[in-house]
Design goal:
Layout (H helix, E strand, L loop, with lengths): L1 H19 L6 H38 L3 H24 L1 H12 L3 H25 L4 H6 L4 H14 L3 H16 L4 H23 L9 H27 L9 H34 L3 H36 L5 H32 L1 H8 L3 H33 L3 H26 L3 H26 L1 H12 L5 H16 L1
Helix pairs in contact: 1-2, 1-19, 2-9, 2-12, 2-13, 3-5, 3-7, 3-11, 4-5, 4-8, 4-11, 4-12, 5-8, 5-11, 7-10, 8-10, 9-10, 11-16, 12-13, 12-15, 13-15, 13-18, 14-15, 15-17, 16-17
Length: 499
C-alpha cells in the first residue's frame, strides 16, 4: 500500500510540474496525461464510495431479519444522522481544496497545518452530533413518527453516534489523502473496515462469537467501533506522513480560518441539499406505498452511475486546485484547469450516458430484481426512463461543481446549488407529484429541471466566472510570472516529483 501511495503522489506532483511549462508540450500529450492522472485518482474514490453503499446494504439485510419496525426505525435514524454528517462532509471539503493548493505550490508543511485545522473542526462537530444523538425521542414524536418506529430509531441513533467524532475526523483525513494524490489508502482502509463492520454487526445484532445480542443497538455500535478503528489507522498514517516534514510558518488560527472560509459554504450547501431530498422523499411517502417503493428502487439503481460520476468530480476538484495553486503563470494555470475539466467531462458524460442507455432499455428487468409487484415495477420503469434522460446533464452538473470548488468558487456554487435544488425537487414533488396526481413520476421530473439548470448555470460560471479574474490578479501579485523564478519553481516541483 505504501508503494502505491508514493506512486500516486508522484504522479500528481509530476502532472502539476509538467503543467507549469505545458505550452511547450503537444496538446494531445497534455490531454492524455491529464486523463491518466484523473483516472488514477478517481477510480479508488469510486470504489470506496461503492464499498460504503455495500456496507449500508449489508446492514439493511442484517437488521431486516429483526422485523419491519426495526428496519424502518434504522432507516429514519440514518436519515437523521446523515443530515448532520452531510454538513460535516461539506465542511471538510475545505481541507481538500486548501491542501490541493498547497501541494500545487509545493507547500507541504502548510498542507499538514490545514489538516490539523480540519481535524479540530470535525472533532467539534462530531461531539455536537454525539450530544444530539443521546435521546431524539422528543424530535421523533414531534415529527409524528409512528410509535412502533420510535424505539428502534432512538436506540440505533444513540448507538451509532458514539462514533460521530471518529466519522467526522476520518472524513477530514480522507480529504487530505485525496488532495495529496493518494486516493488508494482511504479505499483500502474503508473496504477493510466494511469487512470488520459486517462481522461486528452480525455478532452484536444476534449475539455470536461470545458477544451479547443487542438488536438494532448492536448494528449502531458496530458501525461506531469500525469508524474509530479506521480513524486510528488513518491517524497513524498521517503522523508517519508528516513526522519528517518541516514546520509550517502558517499559524493554526489562520489555517482554521482558511479552511472554514471554503468549508462552511459547502457544508451549508450539502446540508440544505440533503434536507431538500429528505423533504422530497417525505412528500412522495404521503402519496402512496407503491410510489415510494418505486422511488427507492430507482434511486438505488442510479447510484451505480451517480457515485462514479461524483468520484470523477472529486478528482477534478483536487486537480483543479493543484493546478491553480501551482507556481505557473496565470495563463498556464487556467489552461491546465480547463484541461482537467474537459477530461472529467469526457469521462463522466461517457460513463453516465452509457448507464442511461441501460436504464432506458432494461428498466423492467432491473426493477424486477427488487420486487415482483407489477404496480411497483411499472412505476419504477418510468422513473428509470426519466433517469436516463438526465444522466448526461447530471454528469455535467457533478463535474462542474467539483471543478468550481477546486477553483475556490464555493459561495456562488453553494447559493446556486441550494436555490436550484429547492426550486426544482421538493417543488416538483408537491406540485406535479401530489397536486396534479403524477406521483413519483412528477417528482422525478424535478430532477430534469434541477440538472438542466445546474449544468447551464455552472457551465457559464466555469467559463465566465469571477474566479478567473482572481487567478489572473493573484498571479500579478506573485513573483512567479516568468523568467528565472518560474524556472526555479519548475525545477523544485520536478525535484519533488522525483523524491
Amino acid at each position: 500500500m505504501e508503494n502505491d501511495e508514493l506512486g500516486l503522489k508522484k504522479r500528481l506532483r509530476r502532472w502539476v510540474a509538467l503543467g507549469r511549462n505545458g505550452s511547450e508540450r503537444p496538446r494531445d500529450e497534455q490531454e492524455r496525461s491529464t486523463s491518466r492522472a484523473l483516472a488514477a485518482l478517481a477510480w479508488p474514490i469510486a470504489a470506496a464510495m461503492l464499498g460504503e453503499t455495500l456496507m449500508g446494504l449489508v446492514d439493511t439485510k442484517l437488521v431486516g431479519r429483526l422485523g419491519p419496525a426495526a428496519l424502518g426505525g434504522v432507516g429514519i435514524a440514518t436519515t437523521f444522522v446523515f443530515l448532520i454528517y452531510s454538513v460535516v462532509f461539506g465542511l471538510v471539503r475545505g481541507v481538500k481544496i486548501r491542501v490541493a493548493y498547497a501541494v500545487g505550490g509545493n507547500r507541504v508543511a502548510d498542507a499538514s497545518r490545514y489538516v490539523h485545522a480540519g481535524l479540530v473542526l470535525a472533532a467539534l462537530l462530531g461531539v455536537i452530533a454525539f450530544v444530539l444523538g443521546r435521546d431524539v425521542g422528543w424530535a421523533l414524536t414531534a415529527l409524528s413518527i409512528d410509535d412502533e418506529l420510535v424505539g428502534p430509531a432512538r436506540a440505533f441513533l444513540a448507538a451509532i453516534t458514539y462514533g460521530s467524532p471518529a466519522t467526522c475526523m476520518l472524513a477530514a483525513l480522507v480529504q487530505h489523502r485525496q488532495a495529496i494524490g493518494d486516493s488508494r489508502t482511504p479505499m483500502v482502509v474503508g473496504l477493510a473496515g466494511n469487512v470488520v463492520n459486517a462481522v461486528l454487526a452480525y455478532s452484536l445484532i444476534y449475539g455470536s462469537f461470545g458477544l451479547p445480542a443487542l438488536g438494532v443497538r448492536g448494528c449502531g455500535y458496530a458501525t461506531a467501533a469500525t469508524q474509530w478503528l479506521e480513524l486510528g489507522v488513518m491517524l497513524v498514517l498521517f503522523v508517519r506522513h508528516t513526522s519528517a516534514g518541516h514546520a509550517s510558518a502558517l499559524g493554526f488560527v489562520p489555517a482554521l480560518r482558511e479552511v472554514a472560509e471554503l468549508g462552511i459554504p459547502t457544508g451549508l450547501q450539502f446540508g440544505m441539499e440533503m434536507l431538500a431530498f429528505t423533504t422530497f422523499t417525505a412528500i412522495l411517502g404521503n402519496i402512496g406505498s407503491r410510489e415510494i417503493a418505486a422511488h427507492q428502487i430507482a434511486l438505488s439503481t442510479i447510484r451505480a452511475s451517480f457515485l462514479p460520476g461524483v468520484a470523477i468530480g472529486e478528482a477534478a476538484s483536487v486537480m483543479v486546485g493543484s493546478a491553480l495553486g501551482s507556481n505557473a503563470s496565470a495563463a498556464d494555470k487556467l489552461a491546465q484547469a480547463d484541461r482537467v475539466t474537459r477530461a472529467a467531462l469526457r469521462a463522466a458524460v461517457g460513463f453516465m450516458a452509457g448507464c442511461g442507455v441501460v436504464f432506458a432499455l432494461f428498466g423492467g428487468p432491473i426493477a424486477r430484481i427488487f420486487t415482483s409487484d407489477a404496480g411497483v415495477v411499472r412505476i419504477a420503469v418510468r422513473l428509470l426512463f426519466v433517469a436516463a434522460v438526465f444522466q448526461i446533464l447530471d454528469a455535467v452538473n457533478i463535474v462542474l461543481r467539483g471543478a468550481l470548488r477546486g477553483a475556490k468558487d464555493v459561495r456562488a456554487v453553494a447559493l446556486l446549488g441550494i436555490t436550484i435544488v429547492w426550486t426544482s425537487i421538493p417543488t416538483a414533488a408537491f406540485v406535479l407529484g401530489k397536486h396534479f396526481g403524477m406521483g413519483a413520476l412528477g417528482g422525478w421530473c424535478g430532477f430534469i429541471m434541477e440538472t438542466t439548470l445546474s449544468a447551464l448555470l455552472f457551465g457559464r460560471r466555469w467559463k465566465k466566472g469571477g474566479w478567473r479574474d482572481k487567478v489572473t490578479d493573484t498571479a500579478k501579485d506573485e513573483p512567479w510570472g516568468t523568467g528565472e523564478m518560474q524556472e526555479n519553481g519548475v525545477k523544485g516541483a520536478h525535484a519533488a516529483a522525483a523524491a
